[in-house]
Design goal:
By secondary structure, the protein is an all-alpha fold. The protein has a single domain, classed as DksA, coiled-coil domain (Four Helix Bundle (Hemerythrin (Met), subunit A)). The chain contains 6 helices and no strands. It has helices spanning 3-16, 23-28, 37-66, 74-110, 125-130, 138-151. It is elongated.
């Protein structure tokens, strides 16, 4: 194989695979590039990392809860039970977050990721970087929070 052939193959591979973007790249991108393939790849990876971390935390909690710490002191036992309760509450919040992450990954696949569920307008890259699993624009989220505040949950 000649050097020219290797260079041509490398150039072809570079065109096929979008280069991995950084947060800076995405923030500097023009509006016309909103949710292009490279940006979707960036957010897919970020969401997959969040999902993997949540699953690792769940495994760690399972291991921790299976450890049988036997203590005869009532104060120590109460402390352990409180720690378990807090850990389980945290895992419950993460379980709910995991559902949102999975929903966002499905939205990437169906092409609706990055757009507000209520208005259809772009959510905005800065908001998605801060919270990749969001499905509402800032305005829609504020409206929803005002309604919840007025009428309760």
């Amino acid at each position: 194989m000649t050097a020219k052939t290797v260079t041509a193959k490398t150039a072809t591979a570079a065109r096929k695979a979008p280069r991995e973007l950084t947060e800076e790249d995405i923030l500097k991108a023009p509006e016309k590039d909103y949710m292009n393939e490279a940006q979707l790849t960036f957010f897919r990876r970020r969401l997959e990392d969040i999902r993997d971390q949540i699953l690792r935390n769940a495994d760690d909690t399972g291991e921790h809860l299976r450890e049988n710490e036997i203590t005869t002191d009532p104060s120590d036992r109460a402390t352990l039970e409180e720690e378990y309760t807090l850990e389980l509450r945290t895992r419950d919040r993460e379980r709910k977050l995991l559902k949102k992450v999975e929903k966002s990954l499905r939205m990437i696949e169906d092409g609706s990721y990055g757009y507000c569920e209520e208005t259809g307008e772009p959510i905005g890259v800065p908001r998605l970087i801060a919270r990749p699993m969001t499905t509402l624009s800032i305005e829609a989220q504020e409206r929803r929070e005002r309604v919840q505040k007025l009428y309760g949950d």
